């Protein structure tokens, strides 16, 4: 298994410095994140521009480790941006208010539903998840560092780089970014996924898990289901050319159709 390549000789560095790297939904899969960062460093070096598309937490076993690694990299001066995902907001909102529901969720779900993975996140901080729900937030406030809560609360909702927009879920088509709401950017599905016309920029997103990364011409979905035991996708982007990073190098992601 790959490990962080920090300080490792970079024999593979033969790509342009304007490459932007994006990491899909991590969902507590810390080992997969370390592998992804190793691939990026081998391809682009220690100064590589990296954007994580959010959903750092839930479902996987080590959400705390994911946040520690990303916070540590940013603190050390890495050129990394971490975007807000809907699962990150649900965790942050639970810590801040105790609320476990959201209008965009199925009415029979809460953040603590086994499919959404809130208990997995709390367990990664050592919280006793057998506690009654009324006592759970107090235990979480003791266990989750304030620095982690502040980090999550301050995550940006999107990034514009080069010819691309990077966002967790997507955008409302034909609506300027300045008018997009948080709900649009971290929760949207059908209105965005079913839109076939070009956007102002190529949209790089996650949120809707697919079996493998897909390039739909106007958008690229790189949530390949790490939260469900599948791969964590990492891509390199030059202009509007998208390449999936793998141990043996780059594989072009060809637009569908």
What is the topological layout?
Layout: E1 20-23, H1 30-44, E2 49-52, H2 63-75, E3 80-82, H3 86-97, H4 118-124, H5 133-143, H6 146-153, E4 158-161, E5 164-167, H7 182-187, H8 190-193, E6 202-205, E7 214-215, E8 219-221, E9 234-238, E10 241-246, E11 249-252
Parallel strand pairs: 1-2, 2-3, 5-6, 6-8
Antiparallel strand pairs: 1-9, 4-5, 7-8, 9-10, 10-11
Nutshell version of this structure?
The protein has 257 residues and is of the alpha/beta class. It contains eight helices and eleven strands. About 5% of the residues have low confidence.
Descriptive tags:
257 residues; globular; five-stranded mixed sheet; alpha/beta
Describe the model.
There is one protein chain. 30% of the residues lie in helices and 17% in strands. The protein has eight helices and eleven strands. The strands form two sheets. The chain has a six-stranded mixed β-sheet with strand order 3-2-1-9-10-11. Strands 4-5-6-8-7 form a five-stranded mixed β-sheet, with no helix packed on it. Strand 7 and strand 8 form a beta hairpin. The chain is globular, with a radius of gyration of 18 Å. It starts with 19 loop residues before the first strand and ends in a 5-residue tail after the last strand.
**Rg over alpha carbons:** 18 Å
Count of helix runs: 8
Global mean pLDDT: 93
**What pattern of helices and strands is seen along the backbone?**
EHEHEHHHHEEHHEEEEEE
Structural class: alpha/beta
**Strand segment tally:** 11
Biggest pleated-sheet summary: 6 strands, mixed
Biggest sheet: strand arrangement: 3-2-1-9-10-11
Measured by DSSP, the beta-strand proportion falls in 15-25%
The helicity comes to 25-40%
Give the distance, in angstroms, between the N- and C-terminal Cα atoms.
35 Å
């Amino acid at each position: 298994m790959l490990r962080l390549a920090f300080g490792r000789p970079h024999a593979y560095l033969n790509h342009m410095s304007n490459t932007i790297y994006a990491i899909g939904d991590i969902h507590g899969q810390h080992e997969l994140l370390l592998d992804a960062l190793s691939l990026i460093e081998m391809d682009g070096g220690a100064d590589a521009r990296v954007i994580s598309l959010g959903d750092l937490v839930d479902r996987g076993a080590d959400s705390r480790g994911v946040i520690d690694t990303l916070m540590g990299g940013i603190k050390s001066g890495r050129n990394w941006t971490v975007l807000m995902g809907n699962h990150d907001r649900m965790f942050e909102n639970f810590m801040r208010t105790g609320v476990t529901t959201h209008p965009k969720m199925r009415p029979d779900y809460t953040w603590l539903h086994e499919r959404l993975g809130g208990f997995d996140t709390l367990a990664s901080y050592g919280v006793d998840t057998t506690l009654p729900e009324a006592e759970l937030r107090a235990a979480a406030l003791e266990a989750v560092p304030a620095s982690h809560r502040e980090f999550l609360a301050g995550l940006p909702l999107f990034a514009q780089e080069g010819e691309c927009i990077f966002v967790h879920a997507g955008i409302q088509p034909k609506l300027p970014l300045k008018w997009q709401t948080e709900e649009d950017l971290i929760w949207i599905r059908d209105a965005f996924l079913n839109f076939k016309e070009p956007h102002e920029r190529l949209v790089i997103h996650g949120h809707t898990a697919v079996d493998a990364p897909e390039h739909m011409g106007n958008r690229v979905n790189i949530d390949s289901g790490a939260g469900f035991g599948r791969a964590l996708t990492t891509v390199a982007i030059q202009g509007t050319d998208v390449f999936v990073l793998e141990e043996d190098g780059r594989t072009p992601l060809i637009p569908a159709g």
